[in-house]
């Protein structure tokens, strides 16, 4: 049980004769009652255990006597043996140790003891299914399985649990749970038996310093109890008006609860019939809520866990020991339409809210935001809000409760920061960067996080155009890129990029004509630019890379070099093996989903080159995006679809003319459908806008 109360008012020492008020410093460092804590602890030993003490694991020396035969009903709640002992079985089963070990393990597993790693003849340290090892999740259950696998005995060493018992493989029936589970005797208690008394004036004052009124204390039946000359606060837990349990709080803010009583919410009767229920983390918070006018409030009995359980699945109700108080009133919770989780603002408090919400159903849970109590600190719970800001502020906290977040379910409000940045254009580039060719400005702009599919018949200049675009984007916005261009030899790719960057040919021979070749100095400077601007994704061995491999490396390039664009050229150079039951259409759809997720997640633009299928009776027109071989998903899933086409017939028009057909633009901020003409400079590989916006006439 983890209870965390740290109210900042002066702590008090309660004695039956008088109640002494001290400063915090005095209280912690020079208590006039050095033995007080010990006294309280020893007193408390009458209460802390939730189970009766058994003596199976008492500290006597190991007996040399032959082991006592175990009872045959399978469960021993209280053996007198000094340590768990192997049990001799006189039956044919003796011959089959494996069988009996399996049966034994099944019985143990039926009561929640995980035996997978357990070996016979050894002490195994496991998580106790009764207490789950407390907040620290200690492996506090010591389980001993006899060497022959025929019997087992266990004990949880956590003082607050102490669960112990033993069983045999072949004793009784196999319905182990009912036999093995310790029969807890729930005590019936009365205020008289507990010797609860009305609060003394000093304690009433103590509460009033926390702004809890006498009226609230009386309505909730808050009492006191004497332990010799010490007084502790008693919070009686009621259900249907009857006393179910009682929790005590001493001067050291230590808590303990009546043993062998049922775990219920504190204030349970107050939520009966209410549509709105508030759940808080401590009794003081429940009382504080009342001061703000909220009676429909309960407190958890056991405080908060240190963190949210790592297990995704909730345990079955009967094994969900820590939250039995919830299951004990599941009808009330079911009837409620709104459950406001007002647990503490610290990480354990938030973990508690999450655990409660998982069990109650997040769809009807709400949560609160604790207001500031100072410039640097927030209030951490209801009582602090009451003390620092007053009842109206606490009322406001509850009235302003927000829907409890559900993973995957959002509101636009959750994205307002991002939407603001988009509106105010503070992130740059969100409405897209110009390609650098002004006649394309209305048609296509490069938006981070989008996917552009580029297609065109073979040799149409797709790769050349993308390279030229990257050089422009680098010049305009300093973007860096990852290139996965499997068709290109690295040195050829370097040549093409350098020519565009330096606007000079790499060689003079054949294509350089009379244009001055790039100098050695320019070449050296260009190499530095290449290294700085591009990351190469290449599969150096003979195997073809698959899309996940490419995206993983692209992610590394984003994180390591800050690349803003990825080119995958072309699609057919990737490995596209798919499971036999998956169609190519399904495969393409999945692959494009992966690419788009990568693009969005890293704010990286992706250009993906895909070839059209073989076109029959082709008359030289630009292909259609639906002609892309593989699947219509290329056009369906991309943000932008571009066809690069060029005239190859000198009689139809200039052959350096390149047609950029923007066939799909999903985001109207980025552009629109249309065509623009560029002129290709064969010497430097540069493109410039063409004055002639008419495509060449094609021979038919
Ligand atoms: N408008 C043009 N005029 C003349 N040659 C061009 C033109 N555009 C590109 N080229 C040349 O065509 C060749 C192929 O270009 P590129 O590799 O970019 O085509 P591609 O469409 O990517 O080809 P593939 O489909 O085979 O991958 C290059 O040598 C390039 O210099």
TrEMBL record:
An MF annotation (GO) of this entry: 5'-3' DNA helicase activity
InterPro entries xrefs: DNA_helicase_DnaB-like_C, P-loop_NTPase, TOPRIM_DnaG/twinkle, TOPRIM_dom, Twinkle-like
Nucleotidyltransferase listed as a keyword: yes
Domain of life: Eukaryota
Keywords for this protein: ATP-binding, Helicase, Hydrolase, Nucleotide-binding, Nucleotidyltransferase, Transferase
CDD domains: TOPRIM_primases
Toprim domain ranges (all copies): 275-394
Name of the molecule in the record: DNA primase/helicase
Organism of derivation: Glycine soja
């Amino acid at each position: 049980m983890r209870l965390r109360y740290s109210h900042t008012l002066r702590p008090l020492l309660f004695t039956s004769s008088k109640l002494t008020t001290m400063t915090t410093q005095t209280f912690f460092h020079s208590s006039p009652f050095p033995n007080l804590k010990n006294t309280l602890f020893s007193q408390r030993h009458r209460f802390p255990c939730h189970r009766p003490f058994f003596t199976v694991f008492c500290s006597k020396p190991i007996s040399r006597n032959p082991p006592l035969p175990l009872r045959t009903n399978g469960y021993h709640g209280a053996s007198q043996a000094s340590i768990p002992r192997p049990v001799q079985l006189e039956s044919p089963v003796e011959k089959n140790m494996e069988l009996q070990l399996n049966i034994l393990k099944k019985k143990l597993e039926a009561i929640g003891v995980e035996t997978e790693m357990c070996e016979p003849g050894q002490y195994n340290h496991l998580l106790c299914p009764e207490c789950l090892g407390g907040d620290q999740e200690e492996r506090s259950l010591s389980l001993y399985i006899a060497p022959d696998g025929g019997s087992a005995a266990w004990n949880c060493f956590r003082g607050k649990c102490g669960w112990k018992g033993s069983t045999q493989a072949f004793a009784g029936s196999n319905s182990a749970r009912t036999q093995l589970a310790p029969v807890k005797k729930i005590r019936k208690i009365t205020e008289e038996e507990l010797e609860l008394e009305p609060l003394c004036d000093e304690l009433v004052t103590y509460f009033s310093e926390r702004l809890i009124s006498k009226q609230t204390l009386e309505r909730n039946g808050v009492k006191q109890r004497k332990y010799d000359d010490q007084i502790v606060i008693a919070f009686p837990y009621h259900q249907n008006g009857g006393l179910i349990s009682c929790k005590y709080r001493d001067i050291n803010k230590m808590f303990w609860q009546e043993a062998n009583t049922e775990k219920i919410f504190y204030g349970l009767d107050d939520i009966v019939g209410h549509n709105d229920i508030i759940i808080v983390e401590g009794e003081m918070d429940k009382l504080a809520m009342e001061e703000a006018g909220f009676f429909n409030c309960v407190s958890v009995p056991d405080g908060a866990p240190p963190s949210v359980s790592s297990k995704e699945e909730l345990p079955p109700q009967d094994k969900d020991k820590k939250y039995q108080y919830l299951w004990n009133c599941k009808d009330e919770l079911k009837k409620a339409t709104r459950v406001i989780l007002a647990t503490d603002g610290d990480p354990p408090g938030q973990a508690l809210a999450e655990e409660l919400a998982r069990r109650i159903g997040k769809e009807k849970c709400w949560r609160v935001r604790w207001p500031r109590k100072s410039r640097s600190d927030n209030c951490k719970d209801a009582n602090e809000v009451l003390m620092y800001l007053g009842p109206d502020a606490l009322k406001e906290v509850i009235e302003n409760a927000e829907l409890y977040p559900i993973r995957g379910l959002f509101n636009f409000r959750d994205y307002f920061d991002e939407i603001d940045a988009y509106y105010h254009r503070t992130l740059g580039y969100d409405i897209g960067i110009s390609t650098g060719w002004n006649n394309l400005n209305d048609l296509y702009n490069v938006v981070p996080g989008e996917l552009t599919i580029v297609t065109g018949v073979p040799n149409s200049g797709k790769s050349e155009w993308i390279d030229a675009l990257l050089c422009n984007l680098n010049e305009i916005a300093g973007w860096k890129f990852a290139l996965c261009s499997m068709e290109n030899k690295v040195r050829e790719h370097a040549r093409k990029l350098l020519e565009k960057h330096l606007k000079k040919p790499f060689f003079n021979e054949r294509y350089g004509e009379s244009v001055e070749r790039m100098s050695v100095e320019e070449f050296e400077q260009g190499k530095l630019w290449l290294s700085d601007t591009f990351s190469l994704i290449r599969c150096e061995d003979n195997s073809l890379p698959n899309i996940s491999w490419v995206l993983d490396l692209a992610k590394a390039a984003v994180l390591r070099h800050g690349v803003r664009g990825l080119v995958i050229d072309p699609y057919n150079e990737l490995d596209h093996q798919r499971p036999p039951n998956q169609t190519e259409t399904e495969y393409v759809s999945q692959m494009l989903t992966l690419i788009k997720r990568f693009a969005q997640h890293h704010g990286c633009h992706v250009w993906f080159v895909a070839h059209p299928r073989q076109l029959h009776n082709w008359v030289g027109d630009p292909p259609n995006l639906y002609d892309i071989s593989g699947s219509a998903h290329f056009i369906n899933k991309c943000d932008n679809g571009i066809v690069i086409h060029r005239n190859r017939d000198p009689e139809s028009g200039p052959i350096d003319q390149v047609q950029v057909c923007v066939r799909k633009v999903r985001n109207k901020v980025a552009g629109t459908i249309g065509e623009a003409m560029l002129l290709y400079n064969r010497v430097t590989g540069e493109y410039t806008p063409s004055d002639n916006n008419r495509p060449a006439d094609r021979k038919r």
